[in-house]
Amino acid sequence: MAMEFAEKAKEAFLDDEFDVAIDLYSKAIDLDPNCAAFFADRAQANIKIDNFTEAVVDANKAIELEPTLAKAYLRKGTACMKLEEYRTAKTALEKGATVAPNKPKFKKMIDECDLRIAEEEKDLVPPTLPSSSTTPLATAPDVPPVPSPAAPAKPMFRHEFYQKPEEMVVTIFAKGIPKQNVTVEFGEQILSVVIQVAGEEDYHLQPRLFGKIIPEKCRYEVLATKVEIRLAKAEIITWASLEYGKGQAILPKPNVSSAVSQRPVYPSSKPGKDWDKLEAEVKKQEKDEKLDGDAAMNKFFSDIYQSADEDMRRAMNKSFAESNGTVLSTNWKEVGTKKVESTPPDGMELKKWEY
């Protein structure tokens, strides 16, 4: 039965009915999820309608199922090149060339990747420090945005993100998901998350990222109430959003104080500014900055958590999770020996969330 769907999918593909082909390949995969060729062929159909991130996911699955399937590497290389992920594409194509050394297309595409990588390196210009205190904005690369897959109207799980100078942390609030049901893959500027849920369609989060990352330094962890993903940034800049093309990157503030403080001081020198003192004042102002709404609340709880000991953190995590976010306790002796019941605010009624 699966082969019948696959044959019909091939006919639809030849008739340029790529959406129909994708749907038929999906049905074939549902019946035979271990057939690598189905994933590789669906990747090709996705490429035809510019679903490049989905094509990468399908190609990766095909490679996982059958590491010697040459066309899977070809599909991944093609999709990554369309996404301008030339280093990732080159790695996939080089592996494919070792599997099928007699196919000249691999060498041709590898040469093209080398050319594109050289152009990227040539265009890279190191940022110069601003002469004034105003922080300049780094404009995003002048390339048209690649269309991303349409998000489902009703996402199965909610996700949020926050960032540090060197990493972006993405949290998917998926409760009670087994670790083996979560697949996370990293590209130069791609994040792919697939969560398998029994009796329902798989959850997908596959954005093209705002900036480039270092895949080998990225990691993720499946916890009881969430999946936490840490993306190592290739550049220390502030991302305006998680996804590509939304806003402008902000360069980090130059640390002029350390350079100035190392200058020699001579007896005849005029009194200069105390840069260490100025820096301390700036940090104090940032610490005392008045935030509103959710930002203020998040900072308040973050400060408590950072200054807490291990027992207090355990108490906070346990009480928050078991009470569905209605109780936050720092007393481990009180909450460690019993289940924390949900306590809604006055005037509100607790209702069970139906997925």
Automatic annotation (TrEMBL):
It comes from the Eukaryota. PROSITE patterns: CS, SGS, TPR. One of its GO terms (biological process) is response to stress. Residues 265-355 form the SGS domain. One of its GO terms (molecular function) is protein-folding chaperone binding. Keywords: Repeat, TPR repeat. This is Protein SGT1 homolog. Belongs to the SGT1 family.
